[in-house]
Predict the structure.
Amino acid sequence: MPVPPTQEVKWLDLKDIDKESFINLVGIVPQDVTLFNDTISHNIFYANMLADQRKLTDALNMAGLSKVMKKLPQALET
């Protein structure tokens, strides 16, 4: 008797989880980096337009960029 095909990510069979939950866990890392002709904060918020200022600050801290941003002429609005 044939075995039905499955879609798996590592050990997880995708039929066992909610599609929306899975989509929220997936990220895209493009091979070509695109920076928009806008401020640094806008470029960072592009990854998550619903993020607030605290999440932006947390991202900068995790990337080790907080001190660098403070040295720029207009900080995150550069």
Notes: The first strand starts at residue 8 and ends at 9.
